[in-house]
Known about the structure:
Layout: H1 2-9, E1 16-18, E2 24-27, H2 29-35, H3 65-70, E3 76-83, E4 89-96
Antiparallel strand pairs: 1-2, 3-4
Amino acid sequence: RFSDFNQIFNASLPLRIITKDFEVVSVNDTYIRLFQLYKDEIIGKKCYNPDLKRLGHNCNSNNCSMKQIELGKEFYEYELSSKLPDGSIIVNIIHSVPYKDAKGNFAG
């Protein structure tokens, strides 16, 4: 089961895992490459950290993915515009789903 998760997590889609207290606990290499980050710039930080503002996520707003999922939505999608270090802008469609622990409890 762990190897299945690893294989999915390390797929070509950018993925990040955030706990229900808004801490970024994991990102895959695709996420790091796309947003031109180092893992230590994001892992362990709150998703709404001002240092991460350039990523453009709707953190700490009514459109926050976590808040929408906590309201009971099975998934939440939105368009994301992110500013890269060189000043260029990339646009992505974000698809957020609940992350559950081994017992099926909402974890983030």
